[in-house]
């Protein structure tokens, strides 16, 4: 007889849609809890490779950042009809320096490192929510066989993203978003 593990945390979903304040009642168990259109989305903690890659992206952005700009890992982001947690968030110099959740108007770029458990959200759901929130730039990073590939998108007419291009480990380029810098994924872990 198979015995299924019982959850260690008992909670009931709200009778109305999920809201930001409900997130504070959830356990701090390493899972990522996000709200999209009033529904709770739970993804497991990312693996070490995912975390290392996100750390390297953050370090690359931070090393090129102009004074006053901040690059944050897993910052809470208020979006239209939701609360999201991008892997890396670039905050404008005018963004508040404290708090748990940042407003989309304070964000210049969000980066999602694609994992098997987040693939659909990173490719379809989250970009549309980021665009709707007015975030000027979005990067999606895939871990390919030969190294990471960055898909760079820019916001068009405040409604959707257009692909600016891809940057792989063999083709570093000079970019302008969120500021002028050389983007070189060859230095990042596979």
Q: What count of helical segments does DSSP give?
A: 3
What is the residue-averaged pLDDT? 91
Distance between the termini: 41 Å
CATH class: Alpha Beta
Strand content: 35-45%
What is the approximate shape?
globular
What name goes with the CATH superfamily? Answer: tt1808, chain A
Order of helices and strands: HEEHEEEEEEHEEEEE
Unreliable spans are 1-6
CATH architecture: Alpha-Beta Complex
**Radius of gyration over all CA atoms, rounded:** 17 Å
Report on the architecture of this protein.
Residues 21-176 form the Putative restriction endonuclease domain. It holds the Pfam family Uma2. By secondary structure, the protein is α+β, with helices and mostly antiparallel strands. The protein has a single domain, classed as tt1808, chain A (Alpha-Beta Complex). It is 19% helix and 35% strand. It contains 3 helices and 13 strands; from the N terminus they run H-E-E-H-E-E-E-E-E-E-H-E-E-E-E-E. The strands form 3 sheets. A 6-stranded mixed sheet has the order 3-6-8-9-10-11. The longest helix is centred in the N-terminal third of the chain and has 17 residues, at 48-64. The N and C termini lie far apart (41 Å). The relative contact order is 0.13.
